[in-house]
Amino acid sequence: MHQAPSPPPREPDTLILGIGNLLLSDEGLGPRLVRRLEIESGPGAPFRCLDGGTLGFTLATDIAGFARLIVVDVAALGEPPGTIRVFEDTAMDTHLRAHASSVHEVGLADLLDITRLTDSLPQPRALVAIEPERIDWGEHLSPSVEAALPGAIAAVHALLRRWGR
User: Fold this and answer.
1) Residues 6+ apart with CB under 8 A from 44
2) E strand spans, the chain
3) Could you list the residue ranges forming a coiled coil in this record (predicted)?
4) pTM for this structure?
5) Is the dihedral of CA 150, 155, 159, 164 positive or negative?
6) Tens-of-pLDDT digits for all 165 residues of the chain?
């Protein structure tokens, strides 16, 4: 009996972008989180993880290739260190514009504006933000941000479930 060929694996349609600098303690949260997600999910995950480093305009091309976007970064939220907040769609845009200063090469708001101008802004999109404790030279996360990592990963998974991925 001949078995029908299995369908080709579906390409991921969600980008999980971790931004930050691994040499600046809590600022390295985004890249560390996407690495952990990539290891935990293994091959065949319905998303692609990308270490966006300290951002750059070239990431607009990466973002434009996906229908959905989740960004993970530290952010000054005015909350206790380790606090996790999720901003979606227009709430994400509003938060990024209100907190436009960035230690990155370009701001995330600028990067998303480029994709908006080329009509390739992912829908839906979200920012998973964690209040830092320390942004200073150092290769390790502070205890409060390290302790928040599982909650931030859970927030990413909750978004993926809600978005049907």
Assistant:
1) 9
2) 14-19, 47-53, 68-74, 84-88, 125-130
3) none
4) 0.89
5) positive
6) 556 555 555 678 999 999 999 999 999 999 999 999 999 988 888 899 999 988 788 899 999 989 999 999 999 889 999 999 999 999 998 888 887 655 554 688 888 888 989 899 999 999 999 999 999 999 999 999 999 999 999 999 999 999 986
